[in-house]
Design goal:
Layout lengths: L2 H15 L6 E6 L8 H6 L3 E7 L2 E8 L3 E2 L4 H6 L11 E7 L3 E2 L5 E2 L2 E9 L14 E7 L11 H9 L8 E4 L11 E6 L2 E12 L2 E12 L5
Length: about 220
Amino acid sequence: MRPAAFALLLLPAALAARPDDPFAAKLEATDPPAALAEPVRAALSKDALVVRGGDAVVMRVWFRDAIPVKATPEQLKNGITYREIPEGALVGAVEFPKAFTDFRKQELAAGVYTLRFAVQPDIGDHDGTAPHPDFCLLSAAAKDRSAEPMEKKDLIELSSLVNEGKHPAVLLLFPNFDKGTAPKVLGKGDGVWVATTRRAVNAGGTAATLGFAVTVAGQWKQ
């Protein structure tokens, strides 16, 4: 085999390893934190999306066993998006071993938070603040005690308590259309990195999957 052809065969493996990437992600079998209310813990999977920067854990994300969505059979066939998740629905929970800075440059204390879906309002003061309008809002585990859906107004108020009422704590979601199930970490430019995975969803008894890409590093440039 010619050297050039051999190099081409090695290229995909070299790209997959990416030793220069600052983060790595994988699924690990671990129970949801005891800090969560029992109804929330019972709704979550027993595996976590674990993101590391070097040897240090940046975050652990537990998704629901099956995230509720509202979608027609045709939508399920063609592929659903975040917009089929009802706003206020419990998506999962996250644990930060150390303080974490969200996309709005808000520092979140180390600890455990619930994750509920919300869409950024389409109003003037939000123009240009994020590349995508889809988020999970974070609420302190001790204050979000139910797995049931929450009204968006109540969710915003609850999440804002994380930052003393200033603004909801956010976890920005990027689109993920990759059909692969193995987690990956991808750079989005300007210092933004996301961890990808696919998770089970349930549409009125019909099972499907939805790709997620959660922001693990990077902030709004202003």
